[in-house]
Amino acid sequence: MKIIEQQNIENILEQLFKDAKNDYFKMITGITKGIIRPFKPADFKNAYLSISKLQGEELKEIIINNDIKNVVEFGTSFGISTLFLAQGVLETNGNIITTELIESKAKRAIENFKNAGVYDLIDVRIGDALETLRNFNGNIDLLFLDGWKDLYLPLFQMLAYNFNSNTIIYVDNADMSEPKDFLKTIAKTGKYDFESKHDGKAVLITLKK
Ligand SMILES: C[S@@+](CC[C@H](N)C(=O)[O-])C[C@H]1O[C@@H](n2cnc3c(N)ncnc32)[C@H](O)[C@@H]1O
């Protein structure tokens, strides 16, 4: 256990969760814009929209318990989830690729990773995930889907070539309508098993053995 490094991350996470308490007000601004046209990621450029602490702890445990080395994350935001992933890969000597569309968010995330002392473990790709992960040819042991929901299916299909028999795909916001359609579509292939978590908010996908 890398106690000092883990404590640094805990400290930064505590600050970020405190700041994320203001998300409610920031989201109202975004939601108001959505009244006259469909939402855009930029409408939420100031909001964390992060996973819960419980989910973060769970991701960390998944990484450690399965000795996961290669993590890919879709949807960095300000880096809360990435820092939990970093807690996991610190223990497995793994690494993370994370991707964020909004440059200002990615830059804030990078600052947070530097302050937590884990930037060397994280490759932050700024831009549309369908571009930043195009032609990706590395292994994926854990894919964490937490970006814009209409991209779950195309991104999954694009990255499925990089899965191995033990790959785990963690789907956040699985109870929203587009992720539900995504899950139905991939269930039809008969290749995957599904495990619901947090009353359906998240789903773990594994490859059938
Ligand atoms: C729910 S938030 C991610 C929260 C983060 N995983 C956490 O728990 O701290 C979704 C993020 O995905 C980003 N995003 C949306 N569309 C994207 C795209 N096409 N490529 C990369 N990132 C995208 C948004 O800007 C937003 O910051």
TrEMBL record:
GO terms for molecular function: O-methyltransferase activity. One of its GO terms (biological process) is methylation. Transmembrane segments: none annotated. SUPFAM superfamilies: S-adenosyl-L-methionine-dependent methyltransferases (SSF53335). Keywords: Methyltransferase, S-adenosyl-L-methionine, Transferase. Pfam families: Methyltransf_3. InterPro entries: SAM-dependent_MTases_sf (IPR029063), SAM_O-MeTrfase (IPR002935). This is Methyltransferase.
